[in-house]
Amino acid sequence: MSGAPGGGIASRLLPRKGEKIDRTSPISFLWSNKRIEAFRGDTIASALFAAGERVFSRSFKYHRPRGLYCCSGHCPNCMVQVGRTPNVRSCVEPVREGMVVKPQNVLGSLNRDLLEITDKVGGPFTPVGFYYRTMIHPRRAWPLYERVLRNVAGLGRIDKLARRAGRFDMEHRHVEVLVVGGGRSGIAAAEDAAGSGRQVLLIDELGVGDGLHIPGVEVIAPARAIGIYEGKLVPVDAGNILYRIRAERIVVATGAMEQPLLFPGNDLPGVMLPMGVRRLINDWSLKPGDVAVVIGAGSESLAVADDLTGAGVRVADVVDLRSRMPKLFARGSKGRLVAVGIDGDEQECDLLVASGGRQPNYSLLAQAGAVIEYDPARGIFVPTVLPDGIEAVGSVAGEMRRGAVPAATLTGTGGADKSFVCICEDVTEKDMKRAIAEGFEGIELAKRYTTVTMGPCQGKFCHLPCIRMYAKQTTTDEATIGTTTARPPWSPVSLGVLAGRGIEPTEKTAIHHRHLAMGATMMWAGSWLRPHSYGDAEAEVKAVHNALGLIDVSTLGKLLVIGPDAAVFLERMYPNKFADLKTGRIRYGVLATDGARIFDDGTIGRLSENVFYVTTTSTGAETVLEWFEWWNAIWQLDIEIFNVTGALAALNVAGPRVRELMPRLADLDVSNESFKYLDLKQAQVAGVMCILLRIGFVGELGYEIHFPSPFGEYMWDKILEVGADLGIRPFGVEAQRVLRLEKMHILAGQDTDSESNVVEAGMPWIVKWDKDDFVGKWSLEEVQRRGLKAKLVGFQMAEHSIPPEGGQIVLDGNPIGRVTSCRWSEEVDKVIGMAWVPTALAEEGAALSIKVNGSLEVATVTLKPFFDADGRRLRS
Amino acid sequence: MSFLIPCPHCGARDVSEFVCQGEVTHRPVEPASFREVAEYLYFRRNVAGPQREWWYHRRGCQIWFLATRDTRTNVVTEVEMPLQFEKIP
User: Among partner residues B3, B65, B87, which is closest to A231 by beta-carbon distance?
Assistant: First the structure.
């Protein structure tokens, strides 16, 4: 009756005491390209209602018009698209200036939805479970059916191009007392606990307006408890923060919820719950209709008649279900309620406030392990036995005058319209009856078959009615039917909140910024970022073969194993021997489980009698450290293990001209006599104390230089500067992969998997069978005894096509092996690779046929390295 | 899984900080029969009830310890350091 901005057409009442809108701050937003005026304190739904909108969405299956129903953020009726976010409950979403709101699940407009035809004619063709039944004939038409169904199924549309709608975070909280629910009982419990000096946190799902202030109590609102998990963990969705709250004591004060009545036409816009009507009138000063009929069970529900009268609505009839149980139906026209039939008498009205009484919201308690039982006297399910540390107060505990009227949800007869048990999933009474007739008698089965209780309200408005229906249809009772299992989430939660912010750690080496400055393309290696190449991987390979290459290998895991038992320990961890490893020498080792499965490899160098320097793969440092620590927790040997991966940077400088380079950096004799292949030395390089390892992962003469990380950039710059005239060039992981493949050096995890053992992976020479014991020994012996099934071999392609990694090796049309690595090698002038093949084919020169892009290509097996097969260059 | 584990060093912490290595097994000693090895590798008692397990505090102090956990309720009743587990003399 107000024409003020935001007043809409006669829906906004004059200012009222206690209203939650601020009429002095107007806000406007777009609704289907229409500008809507609202006030601060309005929700999207209240503003739209004020503007005269009555249809807010179209239903899931039948595309029936739906209007405001609960106005408390529980039912699916008011869900809209806000910006790029679908399924926003407009009745609890505050208006923001300029927001763009659109209806969803609509083909056309809310008032003329083309898919409404499913409601008119779909009935006989779309009964419950129709997609399992009707649409399987003819079978070849399924792809077509599927496409159509996919298109119409689901609620809302995800914008595939949308980025996350804001930033989400997760916060861990520990409190003494957590109170869920800020109603009367919740507040009382919070005050009580705070009064006795406890640390109290209260969460409430509404908290619109000025919110709650309770002395000594922290309040988070609006926020919803998603569930109660093991260990009294309560995830709480506070919009863009997910709180993981752990409490010593949880007080559940989630109240009770008014339940719908089942009658034909019970979903028409204009049929509402009392709580929804009260919020329209009291919070947003809206006039919910002109002529109303109120049907309820108990003074609490019926008192809404007074609110209606106060708001200028004519209350045509009030039916107290405690005194009579009329036969009800609602009649609609053009998608609006126009009349209610009560025992055959029609009463014209545009608002039907109908409630079947209140059912405790016990879901959180049930999730926590509470026993839920039916109380026939009050017609409700109540929590009876609660787990330790969980309390229930107020209505949720059943502390209310009356619950739901047992028969009240079964008043539906007469009228031709559908009677909905579940408005979320559009499950009708008829669907439920059909499910029973088809033998889905248990409530859990019925739930899965009909999808009742599985929609956005999570059963808040359909669980009890559907149990009642089942009890009646099967002539049993509610206690016999029982409840379905309560599971999280108790309220819908966006994936963004669950996912939180991406906090996967990124590891960068001490030389990272130099790589970027030199134009490297970076790639992930576990959590490390490594240079893939500096623009021309082939040229980088060439530089290593013909002159000099420099690669940052700081990502290698580096461990120090120190102590009198260090050699004994390592002998037990690896198949190699270490007791006889001389100080200053290095051995290659492969780590495997007691099942002989390879999981990492690296080098082990002896720095002194009791000190070993162990390197692992780039992603293996933590795994190996854990593995070592675990075995030593078992054996309790006298050793200490230190992870120095981050403390030390490492560079590998390799190529035929490396002996010209080294003297310019270090006062060190690098002749082959005094610094042999697999020697380890400690020396100053460019003034920095380093550990030098002469190893040859990339196949050319080279040195790994390990030194304190703070000198990373200095050392990188120095080596490049000193080696400039020798043609030094930085190389990345791609070049390294080609180089190591030419040498058939395996990459653990790339060429091996959880089935691989060292013998079949072609490294039997590593295993020292005469050792008393080492991890994996028995299994390897068993592998030997049974005979090898497959072997890891090299192959070269006859033509230039490159098989994909994981590509199949085929014999007589059957896959018999797979490619693990494959690259073009300029040096070999062929496509080379490694593959697992049956032992019979693991012979030099054996022919393989490999699937490449769908066709079979010829390859030959090679057992010796493709490059420098006898290792002359490496050892020279 | 969202229970708390009392780490012998750090006190009660969220289970997500830890790694479980499964029930405690005993590695056979040489000479071990095929059956002993197979049982050690592939057989687990898998009890429904209190079970002694290896746990590692990966996102904490990084120690391995033994915990007795009821597999039905996830209640950890005892934790201990493996001081003499299978000590090699």
Answer: B3
